[in-house]
Amino acid sequence: MPELPRVKLGRLEVSRLLIGGNPFSGISHQHPGLDQELLDYYTTENIKKALARAQQSGINAFVARADRHFLRVLRECHQEGRISMHWVAQTVPELADFRNGLAAALSCPYRPAAIYFHGGLADSLWQEKKLLQLQEFLQMIKDTGVLCGLAAHLPETIEEAESQDWPVDFYLTCFYNPAGRGKKGLTVLTGSAGEYFDEKDPFRMAQAIQAVKKPCLAYKVLAAGRKSVTPGLLKEAFRFAYASIKPGDAVVVGVFQKYRDQIAEDVSLVREILSS
User: Fold this and answer.
1) What pLDDT was estimated at residue 131?
2) CATH architecture group of domain 6-275
3) Is pLDDT above 50 for 160?
């Protein structure tokens, strides 16, 4: 199958659709029951099948946590040699020492092409005005020689980084601030774990994406799966996402392959939208 259109993250070329890794790690951002179902379905073998399916469909990169579980999966991918996609690695906030987390990611034989700083932690450091500490973490990533990214749920974090020219090659820009920081009340897309998906959020993040010069990978464009329940919602969400980002940007979506081939659905829609 032909490859999807690509964009450049620094020296790296990635397809305009990337696979997100949260479902592989049992993170639904919906409810604990779905978290457990994801964990049960996404065995190592099924993760490898999903990555292979994405690669066959023209996707050449995936975003996933550099935690112990996923490092083991990627070690198997390296040994088998079936997957040749670019890995955009997320730092793991639960590890006590940031340096150890970086070292673990870089020691994996399936080496990351890029590493980005965790969005929720970046937002917290921005809110606490610990900007020097955040810049130090980013510089540590940059010093490893791989591309350095910064994720955020808050557009203000991205805008701060851009205005101060932090050592960042690209941004990961969340369409929603699911933690509901600073918000009151519930919305129609509210999750059951205290995560609020406010429909005003994507418009505000789109403003930040359009304003920054560096490339962006937009994520949670489907509101953590809430907008994939019907074909109409799914198509409109993808249309809005690509209309809201720059021509040099891309979109990241997680998939749950248990009930239907979401990878094929997503790739087909993206091809249609980008061709028009």
Assistant:
1) 94
2) Alpha-Beta Barrel (3.20)
3) yes
